[in-house]
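Continuing the batch. This is chain 6 of the set; chains 1 through 5 are on the previous pages. Same settings as before, nothing changed between runs. Recording input and output for traceability.
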Amino acid sequence: MKAMLDFYFTQMKMAIQQQIQYRVANYFYMIGMIAEPVIYLVVWSTVARAQGGSVGGYTPGDFAAYYIVWTLVRNMNIVLTPYVWENYIQRGELSMELLRPLHPLHATLAYFSGWKFVMIAMWLPIAAILTIVFQPTLNPQLWSIAAFAVALWGGYLVRFMLLWLLGMITFWTTRVSAFFELYFTLELLFSGRLVPLSLMPQWVQQVAAFLPFQWAFGFTIELLLGKLTPAQALYGLGAQVFWTLLGLFFVNLLWRAALRRFSAVGA
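Output for chain 6:
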């Protein structure tokens, strides 16, 4: 256990040092990501004003809060994409990872976890500017702030497992982009990334309840906005644990088959 903790600490420390070195590039990357939520925010705030001040219980200030928090959640959920997996396997980088005594998942998970601390620090001034410009309505209770802090990492783990599973498809196909586009479409529709799920049609909300996507996005955001009760918060945190463990189970199951495939083709 100590060796594992030391490994995670070392990987996270290395990630922090590297990302600080590339802080300018990271800032430009984060600023580029702001376009998506700002478009959503402007559109829905305009609709709310046209509808007499609110839509589905969301005022322009609520929408501002939703999409500003959205920027943090979205950055927290950046993980290894299937596109990186293509290079990871095709260039033979995986062969080097297999020489380590630990599952490659640990190195990636630890590295991206360390990256998050740099990202959060860099996000704060961006959030401050967005707050000044859009004037969000945000008055969370102490318990919801604490639950939000836990849910941020829970959502990260859920999405990490999902995209790790998706990335392993590259063991069987040279192009995973079609699968990733399908995943992205489902995530956009059923996660609360496009719009709060409570504003979506009833059938979308019902389907979303059986899928993992909302636990990586909408749930975490609504938690800080005070849209959830303590019971709903506990249920959501439990759902994050469930989907993370289920994802880990299938990662381990598929990994064994993937390694057999990897060895069979002589990589």
